[in-house]
Specification:
The two termini are 19 Å apart. The protein has a five-stranded parallel β-sheet, sandwiched between helices. It has a four-stranded antiparallel β-sheet with strand order 2-1-4-5, covered by helices on one side. Helices cover 35% and strands 24% of the residues. It has a single domain, classed as Rossmann fold, CATH 3.40.50.300. By secondary structure, the protein is of the alpha/beta class. Bound molecules: adenosine-5'-triphosphate and magnesium ion. The site of magnesium ion (MG) has 4 residues, from helix 1.
Length: 215
């Protein structure tokens, strides 16, 4: 599902992350651990094709992300990769339901209102479909971002600290939801976290050291 080799990524010519090799098969689940600033978000953005690495090759569903134009890569991501950003990136001018509808539209998928309602139901937010993100709590917005990442049934799910602002009950709910959706759809799942409530639910781990090397 995902294959990355010899990845180096630099900001202002300074390497921040090195990933010699990573392979994640369909249905596999992995947690990425590392201190703040070690490069977890950068790594997830590389795997999603939001950023292209300074060096190295990343393939998703055997397609090299670096070989795609930006427009093709955006559509490919919309279709096959569900990304939950650390800072959510919900569109404040659109309702919760329309944030999910836009994710389908950008992926070139037909409208599907019942799928949107079902997906919101799964994160416990069906009643909030007509609301604006600003009318929700931070924890509820985090679950909307998760629903948006899942609505197109991606084969690769990437979630950047998805439980960071949730209480124990909601953190457990989000972790279970991610793990169950990934299992049900045989999707590969990669989450970054500092949160032991989430990390402890994964057997496979990738750790980024203070030197930025991911092993
Ligand atoms: N757009 C950018 N331009 C320059 N440097 C950046 C940029 N984004 C991140 N960095 C730097 O790259 C390093 C890794 O950042 P990143 O956000 O990937 O870390 P992180 O592990 O996700 O941290 P956190 O746990 O706080 O979310 C940091 O030193 C950061 O300052
Ligand atoms: Mg981060």
């Amino acid at each position: 599902m995902l294959c990355a080799r010899d990845i180096v990524h630099c900001y202002a010519r300074e390497p921040v992350i090195r990933l010699p090799q990573l392979k994640v098969a369909a249905g596999e689940q992995l947690v990425v651990l590392g201190p703040s600033g070690s490069g977890k978000s950068t790594l997830l953005h590389l795997l999603a094709g939001v950023l292209l690495p300074t060096q190295g090759d990343i393939r998703v569903r055997e397609q090299p992300l670096g070989g795609m134009s930006e427009a093709v890569r955006d559509r490919f991501r919309g279709r096959h990769i569900g990304l939950v950003y650390q800072n959510l990136h919900l569109l404040g001018a659109l309702s919760v339901g329309d944030n999910l509808a836009l994710a389908r539209y950008l992926a070139g998928l037909p409208p599907d209102p019942s799928r949107i309602t079902d997906t919101l139901e799964r994160v416990g937010l069906a009643a909030y479909e007509p609301c604006l993100p600003a009318q929700l709590s931070r924890g509820q917005r985090q679950r909307v971002a998760l629903a948006r990442a899942l609505v197109n049934e991606p084969s690769l799910i990437l979630a950047d600290e998805p439980t960071s602002s949730l209480d124990d009950a909601n953190a457990a709910r989000v972790a279970t939801l991610l793990i169950e959706r990934a299992e049900a759809e045989s999707a590969a799942l990669i989450v970054t976290t500092h949160d032991h409530r989430l990390a402890d639910r994964f057997k496979r781990r990738l750790t980024i050291g203070t030197d930025g090397v991911a092993t």
